[in-house]
Amino acid sequence: MSVVEVIGIIGSVAAVGIWLAVLIVRSVARLDRRIDRLEDKLGKRIDGVEDSLGKRIDGVERGQAELRERMAKLEGLLEGLREAISGRRAA
After folding, report:
1. How far apart are CA 62 and CA 45, in angstroms?
2. Side-chain half-sphere exposure of 33, counting CA atoms within 13 A
3. Is this structure's pTM higher than 0.70?
4. What is the pLDDT of residues 8-50, one digit of tens each?
5. What distances in angstroms separate CA 42 from CA 32, 47, 49, 52, 53, one per listed residue?
């Protein structure tokens, strides 16, 4: 094998190596862009779910507060009824 043939083989191998490196770098860059887009979409969805869940939790808390008030009122009425029936104050 002559020097020219060896240089030709080395050049061919180097060209294929460079081509593969460029292909890999482009693929990684494309994947990175896709991941960024998916990350943005997922972030927006999570924000929407957090907002919705926060509103629902606020509604449940308001409902619980209303129920507490209504139960306290009923307890007061029952205590008054008990006192009226028995003629004495509860301990």
Report:
1. 26
2. 5
3. no
4. 999 999 999 999 999 999 999 999 999 999 999 999 999 999 9
5. 15, 9, 10, 15, 16
What is residue 77's DSSP assignment?
H
User: Two tokens at 52?
Assistant: 């919705």
Q: What is the CA radius of gyration of the chain?
A: 38
Residue pair 83/90 in contact by the 8 Å Cβ criterion: yes
Q: Which two tokens stand for residue 90?
A: 């509860």
Spatial distance between the Cα atoms of 44 and 48, rounded to a whole number of angstroms:
6
* CA–CA distance, 70 with 84 (Å, rounded to integer): 21
Answer for the pair 82, 90: CB distance below 8 angstroms, yes or no: yes
CB 71 within 8 A of CB 78: no
